[in-house]
Specification:
The protein contains 13 helices and no strands. It has about 210 residues and is mainly alpha-helical.
């Protein structure tokens, strides 16, 4: 069982890292706090997740979160429809309990891969977040669903404070945009103060929508 801070003298190094992780601190922050290499802290977190998930039988959600992105992608390809429904339920019931930034980002990504409407409220919640990565990934996840009912949301985020969020929002309208979308994108394209990669995204979507 994982100890508490008053038992720190009896803890192994990976356990200390994991306690900090459970408090919501990112791997980067933990590496700075503990003056350890990023890769070493990353190994600590993986080791702890594997160790403590064994004591909870087989926690599939923790297992997926603990994987590298490439392994995660391959694992999702092996899921049956029943497995996917079970995963959706697990995310739905436990999403809010995941406080760590990296875990939450993986869950947002997972929602985009699963494309289940039941989980959309979590994306809409994260779109209001001050965390840029939450907004960026949520826009991307919502975009993977390619539903015209979300067009207005994407258009709103054309003008987000962060250029990456703006870029993802623009790309998300590729298959659902209309003339109003094109007009907004033309303004972005002609804005000399906008980031080049955002303007390129606007141009690409305009060209695609015009051809439809």
């Amino acid at each position: 069982m994982l100890g508490k801070w008053n038992e720190i003298d009896n803890m192994e190094s990976f356990q200390i890292s994991y306690l900090l992780y459970l408090e919501g601190k990112s791997i980067d922050i933990i590496s700075k706090i503990r003056n350890l290499p990023y890769k070493e802290v990353e190994k600590h977190i993986i080791e702890a997740k594997i160790k403590y998930q064994k004591k909870k039988k087989q926690d599939k959600l923790i297992k997926i979160i603990s994987m590298s992105k490439s392994k995660r992608i391959e694992y999702l390809k092996t899921l049956t429809n029943e497995d996917e429904r079970d995963l959706v339920e697990q995310i739905y019931k436990r999403y809010i309990k995941f406080k760590n930034t990296e875990d939450r980002m993986i869950l947002i990504w997972l929602i985009g891969e699963l494309k289940d409407e039941k989980l959309v409220p979590f994306l809409l919640m994260e779109l209001k977040s001050k965390n840029v990565n939450y907004r960026r990934l949520s826009v991307s996840a919502l975009g993977k669903m390619a539903k015209s009912e979300y067009k207005n949301i994407f258009e709103e985020f054309f003008f987000d404070d962060n250029p990456q969020v703006r870029q993802y929002a623009i790309k998300s309208t590729r298959n659902i945009g209309d003339m109003h979308t094109i007009k907004l994108l033309e303004k972005i394209l002609n804005d000399k103060n906008e980031k080049d990669y955002v303007r390129r995204a606007a141009k690409d979507v305009i060209n695609y929508l015009v051809k439809i």
